[in-house]
Amino acid sequence: MKGTILSSFFWGYLLLQIPAGQLAEKFGPKVLLTITIFISGFITALTPFVAIYGGFRWMLFTRVVLGAVQGFLYPSMSYLLAKWTPTPERGRLVTWVYNGNNFGNLVTMAVAGVLADSRWGWPSIFYVSGGIAILWALVYCYVGANNPQDSRTISEAERKYILSTLPSSSTDRSAQKTPWKEIVTSVPMWAVLISHLGQNWGFWTLLTQIPSYITNMFGLDIKKSGYLSALPYASSFVLALVYAAIGDALNNKNILTRTASRKMWNTVALWGPALTLCLLAFSGTHETLALFLLVSSLALNSAVNLGFLSNHMDLSPNFAGTLMGITNGLANITSIAGPLYVGYIVTDPKSLVQWRIVFLTSAALFFVGNLIFILFGTAEVQPWNAPQEEGAETETASKEKEQQSNAKQILN
Asked: Cβ-count burial of 398 within 10 angstroms (0-12 exposed, 13-18 middle, 19+ buried)?
């Protein structure tokens, strides 16, 4: 039952990813992000009532609905970032945004144990996190913008700078048809998808199972377990910012090509945890070593922001939302399968052998995912990013050439 509840979020999450990307590109991501987080906060705050008075079936239903609503999140963010992040600063800005995931996990895991141990009990975890989400939605409704042209909070100089460094990003995406055939047959796109599949299995297995592993293997109380479960995300949050600064410096000084940079960071993010999980599988009951390896796994994995997770924007800034919807949607098959697989394998949560199987499986999928990305991935903008009539240069294409020239001057 626990494994089913933990995975049920992803059943809904899988449903609306591709439509979410299309809607973000057509109508703009701001409204989708605002509605998504507001509804998510509301459902989260209601969760204790559903669990207590509705039981198992209603709990599953609300988790599926929450997943469906949050299916709009990553496609919308990917498209928003494609329109907002200047090329010289993309690594840092994309990491800063996606690092919110680590920060949220860090704070929630650290605070959840304290809240659950308080006089308000476990329901307070959902009230607090749901309330914060609703507050965020209200603030973003005022300060957010679909693109620099619509923003009320930046200067004209900054607006021009951002636009001049986005050479392959069209200002008229709604007039373009999605090149479905080219996307589906794109080898670099398949490389991103397979890497995403491996990442989601490993990451979500760790995310959902670390508290259970720490509590059952080392006999820690829920309050202390909450603090220790947060440690990997603390290291992840800090190191992600370090990786981003180094990554942008290497790219801007032309030490690495963008493709080489994507593959290098993806290797750190997937093969790093593959190694530490192999070591963890044979660490036995050595508490300090096991915790060190868990922390190292997620700390290394935070480099994924500079790997395939930014590659959708490289391949096609104009269809970044749709590309993210495709890979994030399909990759959630492994997000569902991971916790269910753990529930099937780990019948005795104190069994070292059973946890070993879990960790080695995740390591294998991390390894394969990155191997395919190294062999077939690229950071070059794909020809289908701006489809147009043969022999006819559109006004959009002319603007892109002008932006390209301006971007080169600024980067020089």
From this structure: exposed
Greatest extent of the chain over all pairs of C-alpha atoms, in Å: 71
Return the ∠ at Cα 280 (arms to 362 and 206), rounded to 5°. Answer: 45
Structure tokens at 17: 């990813």
405 pLDDT band (50/70/90 cuts)?
low
C-alpha 292/C-alpha 364 separation (Å) is: 20
Distance CA 72, CA 134 (A): 16
Q: Are 66 and 358 in contact (CB under 8 A)?
A: no
* Angle formed by the axes of helices 287-301 and 222-252, nearest 10°: 40
**CB atoms closer than 10 angstroms to residue 46:** 16
Cβ contact 126:47 at 8 Å: yes
Q: Which tens digit of pLDDT belongs to each residue from 346-372?
A: 888 888 899 999 999 999 999 999 999
Do 299 and 239 meet the contact criterion of CB atoms below 8 Å apart?
yes
CB atoms within 10 A of CB 405: 11
Q: Amino acid identity of 324?
A: M
Nearest to 4 by CA among 54, 47, 44, 61: 61
DSSP single-letter state for residue 152: S
pLDDT tens digit sequence for 259-314: 999 999 999 999 999 999 999 888 877 878 888 888 899 889 999 999 999 999 89
Helix (H, G, I), strand (E, B) or coil at 205: helix
Spatial separation of the C-alpha atoms in residues 162 and 159, rounded to whole Å = 5
First-to-last alpha carbon distance for the chain, in angstroms, is: 58
d(CA 90, CA 410): 15
| pLDDT, average across residues 157-181 | 76
- Closest to 409 measured CA to CA, from 160, 171, 169, 172: 160
Cα–Cα distance measured from residue 35 to residue 41, given in angstroms and rounded to the nearest whole number: 10
Distant-in-sequence, close-in-space partners of 130: CB < 8 Å, separation ≥ 6: 40, 41, 42, 43, 44, 45, 46, 47
Give the rounded distance of the alpha carbon of 209 from its chain centre: 18
Output the pLDDT for position 53.
92
Predicted confidence at residue 198, as pLDDT, reads 95
Number of neighbours of residue 156 by Cβ within 10 angstroms: 8
Neighbours of 242 (CB within 10 A): 13
**Distance between CA atoms of residues 32 and 126, nearest Å:** 23
- The top-scoring range by mean pLDDT among 99-108, 349-358, 360-369, 398-407 is 360-369
Give me the residue label for tokens 């459902």.
43
